[in-house]
Amino acid sequence: MTFDSLSTRSKVQCFEPIIRWLRDRDIEQGLIPASRRAELSQLADYVRQSLDRSGTAKLTFVCTHNSRRSHLSQIWAKVAADACGLEGVETYSGGTEATAMNLRVVASLRRSGLLVETDEAEAENPVYRIRYSEQAEPMDCFSKVYSDPPNPSTDYAAIMTCSSADDACPIVPGCDLRLPIRYEDPKVADDSDREAEVYDDRSKQIGREMLAVMMAVR
Q1: In the chain, fewer beta carbons within 10 Å around the N or the C end?
Q2: How far is the C-alpha of 175 from the C-alpha of 62, rounded, in Å?
Q3: Cβ-contact 82, 10 below 8 angstroms
Q4: Within 13 A of 38's CA, how many CA atoms are on the CB side?
């Protein structure tokens, strides 16, 4: 099925800029190598089986500081699931330590068409409200350890998005599936003239791969 055919079945109508952004990610599906698709198919199988079994699939994305890649993964996995009409997919993120969502990620999310708001801009670890649809509740995103609330403690998949977190957490308590899906850290471009480009490219990579997962579930 195509993304457009799936999105017509969804009860959640994403903002038009987000629909356009996801269509672009659908066009890019050929950029995903076969070796990567093997990893993504494991996640799609988990989501499908969890939804069939209980009506809920809980996914926690983990990176070291819960500041960049894990937030991008959490957000785009949820947006893709809702846009594809998959009800019951819950996404979370956490780190091996807590810091804050990086402001460069916030800027990239806004460039993609998401509405990102906070009442705590001066706080060390602000809570950001991420909106992608009028029908969906906003996502509250902030940095936390992967085992901290509101993250689930049982019956979830732990997706390791960076090598450091993957190496530091050989065992993730309570998860049904521990799956490495690693991404290069966009911080390599911090304070360079390619900063925005690299953050947007990483967001697009994560977005097209999470869209591939959710399309495969259907």
Answers
A1: N
A2: 12
A3: yes
A4: 2
